[in-house]
Amino acid sequence: MADEFVSVRYIVQDVQEAIDFYTTHLGFEVNISAAPAFADVIRGRLRLLLSGPASSGARATPADSATSGRNRIHLVVDDLDAAVAPLRDAGVCFRSDLVSGPGGRQILLADPAGNLIELFQPAMRA
């Protein structure tokens, strides 16, 4: 399994809330749940490690680095407008407006702990 996935760890305040967010809104599936300390959810080849306050991953984090940062996971979608609409209807917290550039369109949202997620629709290439 280790060679099949790319893993990212997010520190969260409430593991079950994070599991519910990622599985309900972003298409992740639960791989391992040891809530309230830890969970492992997957989407494609991305393995997202959700570490609550009691987990060893969270305890190893220096106090001055304990808040969510500017890094984010990047999820590619085929239709950004179609992906955003149900999230808005569900009251998900968006952290940016929709931005268009030469590479495509994107918008940032936050999980319940404030960690950023980028939804990205690549530009059509000729």
Automatic annotation (TrEMBL):
Residues 4-122 form the VOC domain. CDD domains: VOC. PROSITE patterns: VOC. Keywords: Metal-binding. Pfam families: Glyoxalase (PF00903). This is VOC family protein. It comes from Pseudonocardia alaniniphila. The lineage of its organism: Bacteria, Bacillati, Actinomycetota, Actinomycetes, Pseudonocardiales.
